[in-house]
Each structure stands twice: as C-alpha cells, then as structure tokens.
Amino acid sequence: MAVSSILETGWMDDPAIAQFVRHLRAERNASDHTLAAYLADIRQFTLQLWGEGVQPPFPWKSPDRFAARRFLASFQKAGRASTTARRKMSSLRSFFRFMVREGWVKTNPFVNLQQPKTRRHLPAVLSREDVLRLLDAPGRLRRQELRRKTTASRTADFADYVALRDTAILEMLYSTGMRIAELCSLTDARLDLISGTALVRGKGKKERLCPIGRPAAEALQVALDARDGTAARLGMGRVTALFMNKNGGALTPRSVERAFKKYLAEAGLSPTVTPHVMRHSFATHLLDAGADLRSVQELLGHASLSTTQIYTHVSIERLKEEYQHAHPRAGG
Asked: Is CATH 1.10.150 correct for 3-102?
C-alpha cells in the first residue's frame, strides 16, 4: 500500500505515528518506498492487536512482549518466509525504539526477541555466455521481425529504436550493476559518456558514481541518437526521458521487466530470471575476476559489507561445481 493511501485512512491522527513519519523523512531521509513498508508493518500490528474498530490515537502503552511474540508467530503459522517476519520485527522494533526515545512509551516489547532463523539463499547468476546471448537478444529479435515485414511504417520506426534502447538497457544493467529503478530514474544530465560514468541515486536517496564500460557507453550513445531522431520523425518534440516509451515519456521498471521476459525467451534462458539477476551477475563476475570486495560494495551501493559478501559464497559455489565437474578425483 502506498504512503498516501495509508495516511488517508486517518493515521496521521495518531501523534506518535505522525512524529515517526517526520523523523523518517527528516533524520533518515527515507524514501516513499521505505515509509510505505514501515507503515504497512505498523498497520498490520495494530490490526492484529485491536482490529479495525480501534481508531487513532492508539494505546501504544498496552502492547507487551507476549503481543510482540504473537505477532511474529502469526507469520510462522501462516507459512510466511522468515525474512518477512524479520523485516516486520525490525520495523516495529524501530518504531517502539523511537517512541521510547520520545517518551510515548516506557519499554520496547520487540527488544531482545529471538529473530526467526533465515536460510541463506544464494542469488541466481548467469554465466558469461548466457549474458552475451541476452545482450544480443533485442537486435536479433528485431532482425527476425524485419525479415517477416517489408513495409516501413511509424510502428516500424519506433520498433527500430526499441531494439537499440533495450540493448542499451541490458548493457547498462550488466555494466554497472544498477537496480532497474535506478536505471529508469537516470537522466541525460547524470551521464558522462566521455568519461564513462553515471551518477546514480540509490536506496535512501544515496548517490554513487558508477563506471560505464565501453560497450555499454557505445550502446547508450547509439540509443540516445536514435531516441532523438525517432522523436523528431514521429513529431514528439523534445524528449527528456533517457529511455523513451511509445508516448515519449520515461520507461518504467515494470516495462523493463516485461521486455526482459521477451528477451529471455529469445536467448533460451529460464523465464524465472529477473532483471535483478544482471546485478547479481555483475557482482559475481567481478569477484570471479579478482575484484576487491570493498570495491564491489561501493559499485553496488551496499551500506554493509556483509550484504556484498553473499557474492563471495556464490563464487565459491561456482568454483566447487567446476571442480566437481572437471577434477578426475573430485568424487573419490
């Protein structure tokens, strides 16, 4: 649920929640996405405790450790992933910590509760060969379409641009390790194709500088030239979106995901692969080639090194697989 939708329910009538929202925005520079996650978790807690009948302001002094435990146990009973329970526990613990600090309550019922154990899932990664097939998919698919059609049209003109645009998108995802939301929010002003860098605004509105590899920079320059030419020919006027949709507006992450599925099929890859796998592949391939872990952390924009360390486990697992496959005495 969006922040605006939650707040429209009258939640700002609760002074503790209203002050917490201001705290997250002012002191922690929280994005709307982060705010929505916090508020959704707090809302779920209030509904379990008091139901729909109780309206703000809420009696925050009444929840105790048993209420907190019941809340977390409900997710286990429902078969939800342990990561979901851990995130909700983190949200409520932060909220109550804030209320203790501000004097709304005396104790935090979520302090020292045992966190649900999580099973570490290694991220999916594409091989270098798989990545190359995927990068070639937009152009290959467009060439196939052209062989089936011989007449030029407004639709065909835009389809030519789409092939170049989507090639640039895939190249950028793999070259920089950006999240698709970060990529879609890029503007011309944040690119320097001469030096090969992009200024990216990531989670928590933190900015980082991402190097752009030569193939990605070249693909992006071709796509930008095609964007301007296509927009002029189709009478769209001056387009400011880095990646243009059919109406001349900015491409959304959801649109990138839909196109990605099409290119997976063309490349013969699993339909379960997501654009985020390009980020996983970027990090893993860097570490495989001997890149420093802290450098990869900076490139990915991770706040904690422990988040980046998951990719070292991926690299080790890949080495073990190669060993098992290639060494004559591996299974001895």
From this structure: yes
